[in-house]
Amino acid sequence: MVIMPKEPISIRPVGVVVSDFKECSRTFDYNKESMVYMREDLTDALIGIEYFSHIHVVYYQHRREDWLRLIEWEQDEPPITLPFASEPACQGVYSTRSPSRPSAMGSCVVELLKREGNRLYVKGLDAIDGTPVLDIKIYIPHYDAFPLAETPLNWCMGHELITTSRHFHWDTVNTGLTLGLRTGAKAMQILGIGRGEAVRAEIAGGHFFAQGIEGATGCSVLRGNLFFEELHTSPGQWKLLLADNSREVEIRLNDHIYAGASEVLEVDEYVLFAAVQVREKNNCEDRQ
Question: pTM surpassing 0.85?
Answer without folding.
Answer: no
